[in-house]
Amino acid sequence: VKSREPRASHLRLHVDASKPQLSSFPKGFHWEYFLFVPFSHVRGHFLGSKVKSHFLKLLLLLCQAHGRVYAGGNPSAPAGRAPQPGPQPQTAPPSHLQGASPVLYVVMCRTGGEGPKGISCLVLEKGTPGLSFGKKEKKVGWNSQPTRAVIFEDCAVPVANRLGEEGHGFNIAMQGLNGGRINIASCSLGAAHASVLLAREHLNVRKQFGEVLACNQYLQFELAQMATRLVAARLMVRSAARALQEQRNDAVALCSMAKLFATDECFAICNQALQMHGGYGYLKDYAVQQFVRDIRVHQILEGTNEIMKMIIARTLLQA
């Protein structure tokens, strides 16, 4: 890391109190954009041998965070800073953290100038002085994975905890991002598949006008359409996963297409399954409502679906 003190061993992360305050956060929470990536994406490629031997022993539970109040979907614009060691701590605004109590935190922060080349990647351990968390946020879905704000207050991080070289943080994040889009699309497939099964079961059991709903031709058509959309989404996700694994030139576009298509289609499938349940589908005693609540955020996570369209269009126009 650039420093006037080349032998200094720590970077310092700190809350920037000059940033606008979010009304939904407790007083003192100020943040723009701070990106976490799963440690599993980077552990084998960017860790030095000494750091690797230390951290891999702690590899029990990892975290991922999202927070883009000012930067939106721009992963190259984190406001958090961890520059030269010195007496004055610099800014590192908090972000949303997915996960209750991870052991390791992989943090993207700015150590240089503006743009992607100014971003570096650090590893923090649970219990690091100056690292703390806000209240558990109340969400519509995804309640099995707690979400909190992560706060840095004069948080000293050893320079040895840097992953890769200075300025390589953006590239590290991008390597995990495309895989993350496949992951979130795959989660959508699971919810949609379960919803189709629940809808089929309900149609075979629920009776109206003297016969089961499965005898209604309109509902038969709807069920057939749901199953067809599910299979199409599954094939697209598998195709993108193969392209990513083979490191093909079209992998980024295909991952974006798969994330866009699967999350949109699978949410529609879950929503239609709830509709088929009628009023029962809105009761928490029926699992279909949970799939609708949980899967809605998939159109936002790992880059919004609008961002996916931008990536796809840019790829097409530059071809």
UniProtKB/TrEMBL annotation:
Enzyme class: oxidoreductase
Presence of the UniProt keyword Flavoprotein in the record: yes
InterPro entries per the UniProt record, alphabetical: Acyl-CoA_Oxase/DH_mid-dom_sf (IPR046373), AcylCo_DH-like_C (IPR036250), AcylCo_DH/oxidase_C (IPR009075), AcylCoA_DH/oxidase_NM_dom_sf (IPR009100), Mito_Isobutyryl-CoADH (IPR052547)
The organism's place on the tree of life at top rank: Eukaryota
GO cellular component, one term: mitochondrion
Requisite cofactors: FAD
Record field: catalytic activity: (2S)-2-methylbutanoyl-CoA + oxidized [electron-transfer flavoprotein] + H(+) = (2E)-2-methylbut-2-enoyl-CoA + reduced [electron-transfer flavoprotein]
Keyword Oxidoreductase: yes
GO MF terms, alphabetically ordered: short-chain 2-methyl fatty acyl-CoA dehydrogenase activity
Domain Acyl-CoA dehydrogenase/oxidase C-terminal residues, every copy: 167-317
Stretches for region Disordered: 74-96
UniProt-listed Enzyme Commission number(s): 1.3.8.5
Keywords carried by this UniProt record: FAD, Flavoprotein, Oxidoreductase
Family recorded in the similarity comment: Belongs to the acyl-CoA dehydrogenase family.
Protein name: short-chain 2-methylacyl-CoA dehydrogenase
Organism from which the protein derives: Micrurus spixii (Amazon coral snake)
